[in-house]
Structures are given as structure tokens and as C-alpha cells.
Fold this sequence. Notes:
By secondary structure, the chain is an alpha+beta fold. It has helices at about 55-60, 65-75, 90-110, 125-130, 150, and strands spanning about 5-15, 30-40, 40-50, 75-85, 130-140, 145-150. The two termini are about 40 Å apart.
Amino acid sequence: MATKIIHAQWEGPFPLTEANRFSDEARDYGVYQFYGPHVVYGKNALLYIGKASRQTLAKRISQEKWEYWESAQGQYHFHIGRLAGSMTPTKPEWNRQIDLVETLLIVSHSPALNRTGVESLTEAADREAKNLHVLNWGECGALLPEVSGLRWSSRFDDPPRYASYGNHECKRLRER
């Protein structure tokens, strides 16, 4: 299976009051991250990663109700990530890619308030993620610049017999 690379172009940070800016039904879909205070992780912790695949980022972010927490707890902000490439895929493929990116980002970063998907990928997502690489560009906040399904899928859960270098015989080429 060939390696699949998905590019995520990130913008932000934005205050919660600017969420309504992302309502263009032709392009405002993707993933988003929320940052804010956390009792253990500090004032500007990665709290949550979500997706907007079947509704715009503005609509989805408004459903999160972070304004309530902001008034009680402190300042929150978000970043948005739109998938990018040489051409826009079909809507079903675009949605599938958004789903995969969100899942892989959650599994690899374990945001403080994501409750589902943190432990492992679902069986279907795991199958697709084994050869997936997500490249994060722009203002990606605390996200790693590259996240690989090679590392975060079950691909190496039962690896072949590996040993640290130096703990087994080396096959040497004879010099002629």
C-alpha cells in the first residue's frame, strides 16, 4: 500500500469571538484545536482537537460552547486546519480525510479534554492510517509538524524479532 500524505494548513490563534469568520461553505471544513487553561497542564494547554467535515468550521466551533467555560475559567483560543493539496477531492473523500486526520492527531497528541479516540485508532481507521502521514503547516500550535500512522497505528504492535544494534550479529560484506 502506498504512503498517503495529507497536508493540513493551520491558521490561528483566534479568539472565540472570531469563529463566525469560518462559514464559507466552499472551503471552511477541516480540523480545529482549542487551547486554554487546564489545572494540570497550565494556562495555554492543548485541550481539544475536533473536526468539521459535514458542516462549516464556524457552525461546528459554535456548538462547542467554549464561551461558557471562558467566562468561568479564563482565556481560550483556537486554531483551524484546512486540508490542502493540488486539487480538491470529492466531498466523501474530503470527509474521509478529515476524519482520518482528526483521529490521528487525537491519538498522537492526547489533548486533555478529548475523551474518545485517545487510546487507539478504531479498527477501520487503523487500517487506513498505517500508511498515512499528516504534515502540519503554518500556525499549528503545539502539534507536531509530522504525524505518522506508521507510529500510531497497530502496524508495529507485533514487530518481527528486533534487537538493538550491537546485540546480534552483523552481516558484513566482504571487501574484494
